Amino acid sequence: MDHIQQSITLKPLEAFFITVIILGGISSAIIFAGVVPHIPIVLAIMFLIGFGLFKKISMRDLEDGLTSGAKSGLGAVFIFFFIGMLISSWMASGTIPTFIYLALEVVNGKFFYAIAFAVSSIIGLSIGSSLTTAATIGVAFMSVSSALGLSEALTAGAVISGAFFGDKMSPLSDTTNLASMIVKVDLFDHIKNMAWTTVPAFLISFVLFAVLSPEEAVSNFSQIGLLKETLVDQGFVHWYSLAPFLILSFLAIKKVSALATLSASILSALFISFFVQKGFSLKEMMNLLFFGFQSDSGVKEVDSLLTRGGMESMMFSISLVLLALSMGGLFFKLGILPALLQGIKDCLNRVPTLIASTAGTAIGINFLLGEQYLSILLTGNAYQKAYEKAGLHPKNLSRALEDAGTVINPLVPWGVCGVFLTGVLGVDTISYLPFTFFCLLSPLLTVFYGITGFTIAKK
């Protein structure tokens, strides 16, 4: 958004008060009124337009700020459409169900917390949704944990850590795509760069969960067995269903563009779907790509896990992205973000403080607004120019956005993810928070790397 020319120059203190009013209003509406973030953002846009008119900025210039901000997110919009189609096609081809089945195969009574963490990670990685993972396989693990007489807080921490590892690293995840697109970094370069902080956080978390796990626990794993049996009975589990994943991985390694890679994987999955789905017609294939995959196995947990995807499922994220970017365009046009950065410019001259400030801003927006999308969008827009001036590659910024934005929201009791997870897992946010090792380690590692300069790429 740094191409947007500001129409006026504000003092840092004035810009700070306007930001507090806007973010305070949005956070109050989301947290206390419980509304979706779209409406308060629209109201904030109206407020900013009114402020601009008060400052004698023409409506044409304000509209230009709105549309210029939205234009910067068109790349993300196209990626979101393809991700929606990829998820639904992978469901129909059995790719995601086969991954789930293979993950459930390793579940047993030994090292329960470590296994819950690893399985949740694999499923989260395969479906790209932390909340769906927690609401399905996570609930199954909570039931088993209760039957074994184990700590529900620790089990919830393991499930959430694994689910958000998958959400962070999956090319199917909307937050992963959003973070890469907002700073104009190739999706797979972004994921590869995140491995420097994510893999150590995963390994440390796995060791901690293994140490805290009981040596042996014997109980009835009937619920997990039911999931596996249903997936097989419905004809979803096949070795050849993994082909779309292998194609995606191969093209990603070869650094083929994200759109071409996703297209190839979608087409291969649709071809396999004709062998997996009985009576799969051309019309059903078209509906699948738009409306998503609909599972009707009769087992609620399986249907909840598999019914997702399609272009339509991405409309919430797309509309929020466009609105938030439009608001960001006005923040630039009105000189608010430039003034805020001017106020802290002395703190952004050094790489350690720049990365620490990025992480702190993303965490602060999560706690202020309770919304992970906005923590990525607003922080990404605010710091792009600072990273450019510091001579840093933008993938450093996209990594920091995920390390301190995506994984922090489940730790906020009033955050969207925190409220959802408390509801589906039945464990208070404060109770499971100390055991979400992966979520706690990620921002610490990104700040540590910023201090040491390790893996910090220059432009």
Topology record:
Layout: H1 12-31, H2 38-54, H3 59-71, H4 74-93, H5 95-104, H6 112-127, H7 130-148, H8 152-169, H9 174-182, H10 187-212, H11 222-233, H12 243-253, H13 258-276, H14 282-291, H15 300-306, H16 315-333, H17 336-343, H18 351-369, H19 372-389, H20 394-406, H21 416-425, H22 429-432, H23 437-452
Helix pairs in contact: 1-2, 1-17, 2-16, 3-16, 4-9, 4-13, 4-14, 4-16, 5-6, 5-11, 6-7, 6-8, 6-10, 7-8, 7-15, 7-21, 8-10, 9-19, 9-20, 10-20, 10-23, 12-13, 16-19, 18-19, 18-20, 18-23, 19-20, 20-23
Task: Characterize the structure shown.
By secondary structure, the chain is an all-alpha fold. It has a domain of 240 residues. The protein is built from 23 helices and no strands. Helix 9 runs parallel beside helix 19. The protein is globular, with a radius of gyration of 22 Å. The two termini are 18 Å apart. 55% of the residues are buried. The model has no long low-confidence stretch (mean pLDDT 84).
